[in-house]
Design a protein that fits this description.
Radius of gyration: 40 Å
Strand content: 5-15%
CATH superfamily of one domain: Histidine kinase-like ATPase, C-terminal domain
Helix content: 55-70%
Number of helices: 10
CATH class of one domain: Alpha Beta
Distance between the termini: 48 Å
Length: about 375
């Protein structure tokens, strides 16, 4: 069953205004008609007046009562026709004025809706919360609604700011003991008199410490990318891709790069981290043998640039893809026991950085296994 589209509040208010005026006008016209008709048909003075005028002017064979009745019907019909036309003209005017007044009265609601839409369309979950409606006017229901909405936005903004500050402060505070642990472990392992058991234990602890350091760095990067960018620089994604691939170890230098000039504006540090996470994600979850990782950088005709990483790997179901962008989410036990363990923040950081730059990221399972991740950013 097809549902008919509902009228807007403005149209419904206009119809109510026009309908009420039309009903009141019709009631007034009918009442006037009945009163005038009753007065004229039952008035002997009116018949006597018609008789006197007919005697003074000319001789008529029609009785005065019939002449009065004919004149009365003609006058009433003229009153109904002309009154109906006047009522229709005035009703059209009332509908037009009602449409304008309804639009003016609903303007504060449009302002609230526009603010809510801008916040909802913001690239990040917490972006745009600094906006306020700040509606001015008398303290009526609409101003109360706008003030309540502003209060809600203020509390949400404070909550997100507190969350970001906590992550950033905790990351900074946790870096110091991890750095100290690494230094102590390196000293203990590198001592000439250290037994093999100590060296083996030190290597295990060093790996655990490195994983915690990657986790802290990821949390700090995620907190930074969730904030508004302070400054924008000209960045060529082709240079970023070549630089990231050049920094890979020799055993992983087989990543193929197909890049053309793709300029954008943003933070060089964050964009480089985004590219690094994408490449490392493709290498980490690749097939052990015979796999490949391909990096493609290009511009599109829609005023955007794209950074795409295609890698082979185990088959991925389409319904599993959204969970890959959630923090600390991994796909299957094979990723938990990978030779390159991660912190589970790689694609979360990629999405946060992309949205911080006004773009977005999309992941599509590749036929035969693996994943195709595409980051789309505005072109400079």
């Amino acid at each position: 069953m097809i549902e008919m589209p509902r009228l807007t509040i403005r149209a419904r208010l206009t119809l109510v205004y026009g309908g009420l005026f039309l009903a009141a006008g019709m009631l007034l016209l009918v009442t006037t008609y009945l009163l005038v008709s009753r007065q004229l048909h039952g008035s002997p003075q009116f018949i006597q007046t018609i008789d006197n005028h007919s005697r003074d002017a000319y001789t008529v064979s029609t009785p005065p009562s019939e002449v009065a009745g004919a004149l009365t019907d003609t006058a009433l019909n003229a009153m109904v026709v002309q009154g109906g036309i006047a009522m229709l003209v005035i009703s059209a005017t009332v509908v037009t004025v009602g449409w304008m007044l309804a639009g003016r009265l609903l303007q504060p609601l449009h302002r609230v809706t526009g603010t809510a839409r801008r916040i909802a369309d913001a690239p990040g979950a917490s972006r745009g919360l600094h906006e306020r409606i700040a509606l001015s006017g008398p303290p009526d229901e609409l101003k109360e609604l706008a003030d309540t909405f502003d209060t809600m936005l203020e509390r949400l903004d404070h909550a997100f700011d507190a969350q970001r500050r906590f992550i950033a402060n905790a990351s900074h505070e946790l870096r110091t003991p991890l750095t100290l642990n690494r230094a102590l472990l390196e000293v203990a392992v590198q001592r000439p008199a250290a037994p093999p058991e100590v060296r083996q234990l030190g290597d295990v602890l060093m790996d655990i410490n490195s994983r915690h350091e990657r986790l802290i760095d990821g949390l700090l990067t995620l907190a930074q990318s969730e904030r508004d960018l302070d400054e924008y620089s000209y960045v060529d994604l082709a240079d970023v891709a070549e630089h990231v691939v050049a920094q890979l170890p020799a055993a992983e230098a087989s990543v193929h790069v197909d890049a053309e000039v793709a300029p954008t504006l943003g933070s060089t540090v964050l964009l480089e981290r985004m590219a690094q996470n994408l490449v490392e994600n493709g290498l980490r979850y690749n097939l052990p043998e015979g796999g490949f990782v391909r990096v493609e950088v290009a511009t599109s005709g829609t005023g955007t640039v794209q950074f795409r990483v295609i890698n082979s790997g185990p088959p991925i179901s389409r319904y599993q893809v959204p969970g890959l962008f959630e923090p600390f989410r991994r796909l299957g036990q094979d990723r938990l026991h990978s030779a390159r363990p991660g912190a589970g923040l790689g694609l979360s950081i990629v999405r946060a950085v992309a949205r911080a730059h006004g773009g977005d990221v999309e992941a599509v399972p590749r036929e035969g296994g693996g994943l195709t991740v595409t980051v789309t950013l505005p072109r400079a």
